[in-house]
Amino acid sequence: MAEDKPRLIRLTAIITQLQSKQIVSARDIAVKHKVSIRTVYRDIRTLEQSGIPIVTQEGKGYSIMEGYRLPPVMFTEEEANALITAEYLILKNKDRSLAEQYQNSITKIKSVLQFTQKAKTEILAQRIQVRNNKSNEKTSNYLIKLQSCIANFRVVHLDYLSLDKQYTKREIEPFALYTTQNNWVLIAFCRKRNDFRSFRLDCIQSLSQTQANFEPHKMTLEQYLEECRKKSGSPDIPMTQGESSFATN
Question: Is 235 exposed, middle or buried (0-12, 13-18, 19+ CB in 10 A)?
Answer without folding.
Answer: buried
